[in-house]
Each structure stands twice: as structure tokens, then as C-alpha cells.
Design a protein that fits this description.
This protein is an alpha+beta fold. The protein is 33% helix and 33% strand. The protein contains 8 helices and 14 strands. The strands form 4 sheets. A 4-stranded antiparallel sheet has the order 1-2-3-4. The chain has a 4-stranded antiparallel sheet with strand order 5-6-7-12, with no helix packed on it. It has a 4-stranded antiparallel sheet with strand order 10-9-13-14, with no helix packed on it. β6 and β7 form a beta hairpin. The protein is flat, with a radius of gyration of 31 Å.
Length: 310
Amino acid sequence: MHNFIRFYNKNRMQIGLLIIIIIFILFIISTLNSMEKERRELRIQNDEIVLGNNSYSEESQSIVSRERVSNYVSIEYGGILDSFLSKCISGNYEEAYRLLSKDCQEELYPSLQIFIDRYCNGKFDSNKKYSFQAWSSNIETIYYVKIFENPLITGRVIDSHIEDYYSIVEENGEYKLNISSFVRKVNNIDMSKEIEKVNINVIATKIYMDYQIYEIVIENNSENMILLDTMKKIGTMYIIDSNGAKQSGLLHENTKEQLMLNSGETKNIEIKFSNIYQHSKGISKMVFSDFVFNYQEYIEGNETSKVVEL
């Protein structure tokens, strides 16, 4: 005991300073914990306010998963869907057209009149109603949309309806719509190969709910006419996705002339592949298993087709 008192008297200033430091550290920890608790309570209150004011809460629950569209954006998403569909029903097509994304306009409806003729006519009138429900809320937010007759106006109940899928994208700080099951366009795909003086470059893809369209630039620097596929068999041109599944090219939508290049010719070719939309999938390989590098020799029976993989 005597030794402890002597040690304390000798080091009282250092001990006192250590006690002050410990008290200060405990005070800082307590203050930070209190601030974090207040932030958590404020977030919970804000979530409850948003959820309570969210008139699109039921529509935000995904049909295909347990996920839901975030409360903070579901109000804006539901708002643009309501705005677009109500404008179409009331015949305000010009304002509805402005709500489409630039990609959707360029790929599907390059003018207002084309939008009216191909999408609105026969689908919308003052007798129509609609509903929508979140389909997916992962990389893209996609809504399942139904358009049907309003029985309160027509006086009859008809079970038939028109179905569509709308995806919502951000463009220049605003939310825009992709319609007609068009999900999105992806540019700058890094997939290319040079073989026997032929350059093959996959530059973009347009993703739909049931298929994808790949834009391919072929540059024939060889001295021979080439053919991407003889079209004699089914499934000779295909992609392999990141899950290892094989998706065949729908070459019946192309002509043989489109797949043929003369010496020195460059072509931009679009190939459609059957590919049910899944947000988690990506392309890992594109295969041309019936590629002809010298078409003249091929038709004379002196050459066979080859396999080219990107």
C-alpha cells in the first residue's frame, strides 16, 4: 500500500492526464453512438413517411422476385408510367412521345407519326384503362403493363387485354421510358477478332425481353468473297452467355446476300439471337461455326466452312 501511494505521488500528473484522456475518449464514443442512433431513427422516420405517401407501393413489388422498387424512386417511376399511359389514352401523343428515351425513339419510333401509327393506333382510345406491376428491379427497372377496356365506360366486361413491358432509364438527369419490350441498348462492346484478313467487331446490342440484336461490323480485307454462314443448317451461329447457355441466331430474318461480303467490302450487319431476358446474363462468346473464307472455292467443292470464335 505504501509503495502504491509513493508511486501515485510520484506520477500523479501523468495518471491525471491519462484519466482525462480516457474520459475524453469515452465522451467521444458516447457522442458518436448517440449521433448514429439519431441518424438511424431519422432514416426510419423518413422511410415510414415515404412509404406512407407512396401511392405506388403495391405496384412496386416485383412479380418475379421478392425484391421491390425502392420507395424513393417508385413514386417517380409510377408517375412517369401514369403520365405516359394517360396521355396515350387521351390522344396527347406528342407529349407521350417526349417521355420515350432517345434510344427507344431512334430504334423503334424515329418520328412522332411512326409512334402513332405503329404503337398508339388500335391500342389506345378513351375507352381504355391500364395497370402496371414491377417485373424486375435489378440492373433495369421493368414494369409489366396491361391495357384493357374500361367496363365503366363500355358497359361490358371483356377479359382480353394488351400486354407490354416498359423499362425506365435515366437520361440527362430525367427518367425516360423504353416501351414495346425494349429494355436497353448497350454500346462499346469489347468483342473483336481478326482472322485471315477479315476483321469482325461486335459494337452494340439491343436488348429486348425475348431476344437480343447484335450489331456486327465485318471488314473483308482478303482477296476473296466471304460468307458468314451458309444457312444450310439451324443453330450454326450462336452466342454463349455467362451462365453457359447457348442461344442460336435467328438467321431466317437475314438474307444470304446480307451475310456475304466482296473483297474490300465493309458491312454493318444486325443478327437477332433468341435470348429470354435475365438481368444476370451477359455474353461470354459469339461463335460462327459455318464461316466461309473463300466462297468461290466453297461452291466449287474445294473448301469447307470453318469455325470462328470471338
